[in-house]
Design a protein that fits this description.
Elements lengths: L1 E13 L9 E8 L13 H11 L8 E10 L5 E9 L1
Antiparallel strand pairs: 1-2, 1-4, 3-4
Amino acid sequence: MASNELYLAVLPMVHLGMNQYGLTEQVITLLPDRKQATEFFPDEVQDYLNIFDRRTQYLVGGHVTGYSYEKLTTQNNRVVVKVYQHVG
């Protein structure tokens, strides 16, 4: 099975549009570069992964057949999540 290697990132967002000016939220996204991945604290990463697991069903379609991931521990004892986007 072929896959794309991506990294989980949680990005803060502040809206500047007229209708939602100042609305703040966090967005979970996938990026192709390890340098841009979020380095999670070990006690918080599972909460984000639970959300990601529940929502990946909406990211499947076309050539994308599913997702899996692995947690990588960094030198400073944080966790980076490497995501495999399975394609076929």
